[in-house]
Design a protein that fits this description.
heterodimer, A: 212 residues, alpha+beta, 4-stranded antiparallel sheet, 8 strands, B: 128 residues, alpha/beta, 5-stranded parallel sheet, 5 helices, 5 strands, globular
């Protein structure tokens, strides 16, 4: 049975609320740092956070199939709550994001290669670590992150390599985070975050924290 | 007489902590909760609100836009605080330009005390 299925609707809503808030605050800090580095104002839009059936999450990947080339960045975390952040971008979105963060005068990136992969891994590491830092502080839990790995290529090949959502619960946490680098009007969307079998543990920690 | 407060944040968890801090300071507080900027404006139309505690990053209108609208409607700027977890220079500048207070949200258990202090300072007019 999945961790999420053990929770009532209300408990699930509160758990999702806490994750959304940690995402908001964690990414807020990260984006502020990126804004300083890139010298551009970055607007973080309110993240959308939902628990959805795994099949619905898989259907979302149709968008990626249309984009053909895609980049998946996967980062595991462990501790009192275990899970995996799985971010994906179309090639166009990833270049758009990275170009937005370049300083004025720096040469624009036109294709995804090793340098861009390193930039995206760094960015993911900083973003996921920022979110988990806030979550661990909010709930007073210990969390460790592994280094992220990156897969790049045709969507159908990547899907096989990464065994997308294979270990996920029946319900997965599905996030859409978008932000705009104002100076260059470049937008990026990051998606997916799946706490494996962790929703019940998460809710227990929330109850302890709220004293309920 | 009990004072009326609006606590606006799209996160239930965040509202819980702000309410809890508020009750520490003013046990008789009448707290109106809002999960969006639109709800803040709706509540303020129908109630005599003494203090506004607004999260910045909410569904449109966000906290900054709501604060501007409230000021335009004649609400005293000293009665409005923007509460956020983001240490953004840009947001701080916007808050300063409007003349409203800008308070850091408590994230972890260790930050609750400092949040209560900054909230108390705000109510006493010390951090505007």
């Amino acid at each position: 049975m999945s961790g999420a299925a053990l929770l009532t609707e209300e408990e699930q809503a509160l758990s999702v609320d806490v994750l959304a808030e940690s995402l908001n605050l964690g990414l807020g800090h990260v984006i502020e740092e990126l804004a300083e580095i890139s010298g551009s104002k970055i607007e973080l839009h309110v993240p959308e956070v939902n628990m959805i059936p795994k099949q619905d999450a898989m259907r979302f990947t149709d968008k990626m199939k249309q984009a053909k080339k895609a980049i998946f960045v996967i980062q595991e975390f462990s501790g009192e709550i275990n899970g995996e952040a799985l971010l994906f971008f179309s090639e166009k979105e990833s270049l758009n994001l990275l170009n937005g963060l370049l300083l004025d005068g720096e040469e624009k990136l036109i294709e995804f290669s090793t340098t861009e992969e390193e930039m995206l891994l760094d960015l993911t590491n900083v973003a996921v670590s920022g979110v988990l830092y806030v979550l661990s502080n909010m709930l007073d839990v210990k969390l460790n992150t592994e280094l992220p790995t990156c897969e790049y290529g045709q969507f159908k090949d990547i899907q096989k390599d990464t065994m997308l959502l294979e270990n996920a619960d029946d319900m997965v946490l599905f996030l859409t985070i978008s932000f705009t680098v104002v100076k260059r009007n470049s937008k990026a969307q990051l998606m997916f975050f799946q706490p494996n079998n962790s929703m019940s543990t998460l809710y227990d920690r929330i109850k302890m924290r709220l004293g309920i | 007489m009990a004072l009326n407060y609006i606590v606006a944040d799209d996160s239930l968890f965040a509202r819980y902590f702000i309410k809890s801090a508020l009750k520490d300071i003013d046990p008789d507080a009448i707290i109106h909760e809002a999960s969006s900027g639109e709800k803040v404006l709706e509540i303020s139309l129908n109630n005599d609100i003494d203090w506004y505690l607004l999260d910045i990053n909410m569904e449109e209108p966000d906290g900054i836009k709501v604060a501007k609208e409230l000021i335009d409607k004649g609400v005293d700027v000293a009665k409005i605080a923007l509460i956020t977890g983001n240490k953004s220079n840009d947001l701080m500048t916007q808050a300063e330009e409007m003349g409203v207070a800008y308070l850091q949200k408590a994230i972890g258990p260790n930050e609750v005390v400092s949040f209560v202090v900054s909230l108390r300072n705000f109510f006493e007019g010390a951090c505007v």
